[in-house]
Amino acid sequence: MNQKAPPAKAAAPAAGNSRANTKKELPEHLKSYKHVWVLIELERGVVHPVSWELMGEGRKLADKLKVDLAAVILGAPGGTEDAIKDSFGYGADLCYVVENPALTDYRNEPYTTAMTELVNKYQPEILLMGATNLGRDLAGSVATTLLTGLTADCTELDVDADGSLAATRPTFGGSLLCTIYTLNYRPQMATMRPRVAPMPVYQAGKTGRIIRHEVALPEESIITKVLSFLPDSATGKANLPYADVVVAGGLGMQNAENYQLVRDLAEVLGAEWGGSRPLVQKGWIPSDRQIGQTGKTIRPRLYIAAGISGAIQHRVGVEGADLIVAINTDPNAPIFDFAHVGIVADATKILPALTEAFRKRLALAAARPAAE
Amino acid sequence: MHIVVCIKQVPDSAQIRVHPVTNTIMRQGVPTIINPYDLFSLEEALRLRDRFGGEVTVVTMGPPMADASLRKCLTYGADRAVLLTDRFFAGSDTLATSYALSYLIKKVAQEWGEPDIIFCGKQTIDGDTAQVGPGIAKRLNLLQLTYVAKIDEFDLAAREIVIHRRAEGGIQILKTKLPCLVTMLEGTNDMRRGSIEDALRGARSEIVTWNAAEAGIPDLALCGLKGSPTIVKKVFAPSPRAEKAFQIEVQGKTPAEISDAVIGEINQRQPGLEQDIQKMAAGF
Ligand SMILES: Cc1cc2nc3c(=O)[nH]c(=O)nc-3n(C[C@H](O)[C@H](O)[C@H](O)COP(=O)(O)OP(=O)(O)OC[C@H]3O[C@@H](n4cnc5c(N)ncnc54)[C@H](O)[C@@H]3O)c2cc1C
Ligand SMILES: Cc1cc2nc3c(=O)[nH]c(=O)nc-3n(C[C@H](O)[C@H](O)[C@H](O)COP(=O)(O)OP(=O)(O)OC[C@H]3O[C@@H](n4cnc5c(N)ncnc54)[C@H](O)[C@@H]3O)c2cc1C
Hints:
The complex is a heterodimer.
Chain A (H helix, E strand, L loop, with lengths): L35 E5 L1 E2 L2 E2 L1 H17 L3 E7 L5 H9 L4 E6 L8 H15 L3 E5 L2 H14 L3 E5 L1 E4 L5 E6 L6 E5 L6 E5 L16 E4 L12 E7 L13 E5 L6 H14 L2 E4 L1 H5 L20 E5 L5 H7 L5 E4 L13 E3 L3 H21 L5
Chain B lengths: L1 E5 L2 E3 L5 E2 L6 E2 L5 E3 L1 H17 L2 E7 L5 H10 L3 E5 L9 H19 L4 E5 L10 H8 L3 E13 L4 E8 L2 E8 L2 E5 L11 H9 L3 E3 L20 E6 L9 E2 L7 H15 L3 H9 L3
Parallel strand pairs in B: 1-6, 1-8, 6-7, 7-13, 8-12, 9-12
Antiparallel strand pairs in B: 2-5, 3-4, 9-10, 10-11
Helix pairs in contact in B: 2-5, 3-4
The structure holds flavin-adenine dinucleotide (FAD) (2 copies).
């Protein structure tokens, strides 16, 4: 990786540099906006883990600002109890709860109404949501309704000396990062992708204040109807972001047939399989298996990368892995700059050997009595 | 029927190279393309038009050279293309972009009829925020359907649409009323080649070009840098990791020997992992 920061003008993202010196001059009516909020994504009784990851980040921001961290829970009547309990467990000081039959399934209209009503009434300074299909659908509507700034897909959140949210995200192509502010509008909104932040520690038995808010959402007034929901079958659907072990291949696998070696190892390890972007473009793997900046961010305990050079766009998606093992014929491949264990060798030879070795070990362990 | 499709001209990321030493993007000579996600929406729009009749108007806000992408859309079969270009729009964030585009669409509606459906791409490959579609929908007070995997039913007379929407953990089947704003998921269709006639028409046609005044944008203070609540404060390179990878000895070793060394290293650095894999395999 390079050592010295290149000139800032090299990549002029969103708004160029001409406003980099803008000062914080919050209009009077926005000065009362306080506290950090996280939207808890509750769908069909399950909270998306990205909401807890954001609670961890939100906690740090709230502590720095010396304000409260609030969880915002929208859901069906009687359907929010577990989410409330877990929100306290993951660090909330208080919960804002809206229960309404219209909030049973996610729909843009009632969610936007409920969310903007809450914001206008209770006035948070920071509002965080997951960069999921739900969060991205909702955040854009809410920000436009409130006429405030929204920074997408942040990789880092912080507050600076004057208490403003500093939201960092990759610039185009991901080789540089930029820090974006919403200085003079409130709330300051940002989304973050699943697995970018670590899961915070759960503390059982914690409680806090619960503020219940009524929103009028008569079903007749909501035009969009949910006709049905087809859950993904458990098989075949990739769940890369939350996998414990991920095996991936790159162009170094040379062809689609060799890519099967990646899947063979993944199967023995009970792992998810994926790859670099060129493999999606070549049609060797489906797009939901792409790992990296424009694919999935992963955070496994073990990531095995075979024939992947380690371009920055790939790197930003895998850096959260606990252990990265890279196989590459080129000793100077950039992947060795951030992998923990390197093997300079032909992946098409090493992968089958690894598969075989693991197969034997796991079979042996299975044959031993469980008590061992 | 009138369909409006919003497209953005973007640098072709496949052609972008990152300078190996300075780590900066080498933009020089990078060709521009239609944002790839927008093509799935354009194709879906053309299919609806082919089935139900009517016109497809493609619009973009961008520099004058963005007319190249609009022309390309005409060669695919779009009926009309409109470019909104003005220096006032430079530096727009997504809030300012949706402001300008919503007035552009209003003006298009005045000229050629209210749109029954508006399409946007799922997201762009450069800004990559996925915020402009929802922003336009909110500003035009339209229902929004994002991440659409399939248009299941389209009933122009009843003004109803049923779609499959990709949600977390499954597909939501939603029914709503026209007019609405739709963003298509990638891979849902293949862009057509475009006929010879369309190619010729695309090359010859005039691209309707408006500046802010001509498009009837009421408040320039809400456009461009001035109208953008987000501010880019700094641009910087990510910090490099301190130490390089520990290299497994490979000289004169067989793949099997190397594998054993690798597994030893994994077990030392992630104790318990192999056991957990074992447990998972056994179905615990
Ligand atoms: C806007 C943008 C977004 C992008 N998003 C992503 C993204 O999300 N994810 C992503 O992955 N990429 C992304 N890319 C692409 C990225 O820049 C790289 O081009 C890509 O990651 C390279 O893929 P690769 O490592 O498979 O191929 P290469 O860079 O070609 O590397 C192949 C590697 O295999 C090695 N090799 C060759 N033969 C063997 C062998 N027999 N055994 C072992 N090793 C071998 C070579 O030494 C080489 O290091 C993006 C690019 C842009 C511009
Ligand atoms: C690196 C980088 C980071 C940025 N980060 C942010 C950020 O966090 N927050 C923010 O508010 N702005 C941000 N911007 C600015 C933002 O990219 C611009 O406002 C841009 O005009 C539109 O956003 P987008 O490219 O993300 O489009 P998206 O919202 O991803 O686009 C979705 C769809 O909207 C339509 N669309 C988008 N732009 C146009 C257009 N000009 N003309 C016609 N249709 C269009 C297309 O159909 C497109 O597929 C960023 C820009 C860059 C380069």
